[in-house]
Amino acid sequence: xxxxxxxxxxxxxxxxxxxxxxxxxxxxxxxxxxxxxxxxxxxxxxxxxxxxxxxxxxxxxxxxxxxxxxxxxxxxxxxxxxxxxxxxxxxxxxxxxx
Length: 98
Hints:
Elements: H1 2-23, H2 28-52, H3 58-85, H4 90-97
Helix pairs in contact: 1-2, 2-3
């Protein structure tokens, strides 16, 4: 049952969020949220597969620490972009750079 749920996550949910990340071109915050959901889905699939094979959970905790660092870095970039340009629209950022 656990492997079935893991396969559903791996083959249905993760590609849908990846497609949402590719199609989304409006807000920086939505892109960060989609990336965070993708990362947590990978974490969930990895933890289900490794715990079902009776591996130690040290690698999973390292992966979780990297996910937290990625989230903090994304929020810092969002604050800098909002402070610098006044908005998180990705189209606005492309026009200001040119």
